[in-house]
Structures are given as structure tokens and as C-alpha cells.
Amino acid sequence: DLASQSADRQYRQDIVDEVTTAALQVIPYETEIAYYEELLDEVRAIPAAGEAEEIDEEFARTYEDVQTAIRQTSEIYHLISDNLNTSANLYTVRGPVDFHESRGISARRLALIGLLLWMIAVASILVWAFIRYRIQAEEIEERLKSEE
């Protein structure tokens, strides 16, 4: 009895394996069939000869609409352009145009200005340091006098 159950189990396992293998082999064919069915539907959707004339008429109407839109856009452009460039300006010219010419600074002059600024900065730092020293010295003197 055990031997027959083991054989039955092996038989059932073999059948399940064969069904699984067959199903896996069918999947690529199913996707290929779906692709060709979709391709066939697209070919069937191509318009017949009578529909081609309707498409040509629709194209002609669309082309005329685009031409009309371009013409109207051009008219709007010219209208706006004429309004922006009128001969009656809102201002009047009262004299000749004034020109101002500025020259560049030479490297020598730039170096002299830099040197002058550096000297001013050093002098300012020295004056600040001297003032700070005097303030601290006075504070120390006051503390010594108050301690006595």
C-alpha cells in the first residue's frame, strides 16, 4: 500500500511538472498572438478609398484655417507696429544729444591709489591701537588707585 501511494505521488508530481512546463512554453506564443492580433486590428482601421477623400477635404479645410490665422496674426502685428512707431511722439527733442567720454585708469595711477589707501588703513589701525592702549592704561591706573 505504501509503495502504491509513493508511486501515485510521483505520478501526480510528474503531471504537475509537465503542465507547468507546457504553460511556460505557451506564454511566448500567447504574447506573439496578441501582437499579431493588434497589428491586424490596426491594418483593419486604415481608412478605405472613400474615407481618403474625406481626409483630403479635412486637410484642405485645416490648411485654409491655418492660412487665415497667419494672415490675421500678420495684420495684428502691423497694427501694433504702426501704433508703437507713430510720428506724433509724446516728447520733443530740445537740443543736441550730450556725449560723455570716460577714460580708463592707467596701471600706475591705480597702483598709486592702492598705495594711498593702504597707507591710510595702516595709519588708522595705528591710531586705533594707540587710543585703545591709552584707554587700557588709564583703566589700570584707576584700578591701582582704588586698591590703595
Q: Regarding quaternary structure, how should these chains be classified? A: single chain
Which spans of ≥5 residues are poorly predicted at pLDDT below 50?
Answer: none
End-to-end distance, in Å?
121 Å
Largest sheet composition = none
Bin the helical content: over 70%
Q: C-alpha Rg, in Å?
A: 49 Å
Q: Mean pLDDT, as a whole number? A: 84
Helix count?
3
Summarize the structure in words.
Helix content is 81%, strand content 0%. It is an all-alpha fold.
What features would you highlight for this structure?
about 80% helix, single chain, 3 helices, mainly alpha, about 150 residues
In a nutshell, what does this entry contain?
Helices cover 81% and strands 0% of the residues.
Question: What's the SSE blueprint?
Answer:
Elements: H1 2-44, H2 49-84, H3 107-147
